[in-house]
Amino acid sequence: MNRKWWLVIAASAVLALTAAACGSSDSGSSSGVSGDLAGAGSSAQQAAQEAWTAKFEDQNSGATVSYDPIGSGGGRDQFIAGGKTSFAGSDSPFDTDELPKATQRCAPGQLVQIPNYISPIAIVYNLQGVDNLQLSPDTTAKIFKGEITTWDDPAIKADNPGVSLPSTKITPVHRSDESGTTANFTDYLHVAAPSVWTFDSDSTWPLHSGESAAQTSGMVQAVKAGDGTIGYADSSQAQGLGIAKVKVGNTYVAPSAQGAANDFDQSKKDPQLSQGKFVFAYTVERTPTDPSSYPVLLVSYLMGCTKYSDDTQTKLVKAYFTYIESSAGQQVAAQNAGSAPLPPGVSKEVQPALAALGS
After folding, report:
1. d(CA 70, CA 167)
2. Whole-prediction pTM
3. 49, 212, 265, 344: which one has the fewest Cβ atoms less than 10 Å from its Cβ?
4. Helices 311-325 and 46-59, axial angle in degrees (round to 10)
5. What is the pLDDT of residue 31?
6. What is the residue-wise DSSP string for 304-345?
7. Which residues face 303 on adjacent strands?
8. How far apart are CA 224 and CA 221, in angstroms?
């Protein structure tokens, strides 16, 4: 065999090995599934869901995935009711009243609830002339409770030495719908400022004062529409607004994916809500002292069943969930929504749940 042909064969072998290596990477791809898959829920997940859907449909040309960002509560309700909604996304896990209903909805299969999205919640504001704002937990709680009513209040001045603050009236904005973002934000207020925020954490805003808006997009629009407004939203949708730093220990910290990830590393599984072989729920650490952590975050979940009466839905849910939980899927969310990829330990922990899908 002459030298020319030997080089050709050698080059072909290298290309074959390279292709094999690429094919074995963790792309989360599940080629070959087809059909229509519908989900609903968290509007905080919207940017990530749009990115996941686009990539998943690229990899599975016969599949169409729709996701309605109606809010976490609406998503959980639609999932429990059944019908066309095969999966839900929620920034709060099923509570003790919902768990039996969700479990029954999946019978004779099993309920799956796995974390899929870790993201900082931004305290967003619109205040002319103020580009940098710092807020301690107590000050934040007093603002949203309506106890602090103007931006030049002494408590806000104490958090922002040297900053010129106007006497503009404060208009707090909260979510009008049942919201997982609200549940996480009120949990932060309840745990970090217990002497001020005497309400329990709840997905429904406990006060009637201030303005209200539906879904994350409505919240952002309402804050942008006024001067002196303040609200809370997933950081992926906070563009164009001021974003406050929150006090952690003796330092004021801006929201970041890394800060949310560092905080989640300190969080623990909630045994009361993690009822079921494939049901995961976490209690988030809200009072860290290390400024590398950002405590105003949400842990969002995918909710589905191991088996559906329609085999097509079973295959689609397995493929879609597997893609989202893969390192490739998590990276797509990080790039498009600014979320934090799931820690390796959590990814490993949910693998049995993914394996059970379709079994």
Report:
1. 36
2. 0.86
3. 344
4. 110
5. 54
6. EES--SSHHHHHHHHHHHHHHHSHHHHHHHHHHH-PBPPPHH
7. 88, 113
8. 5
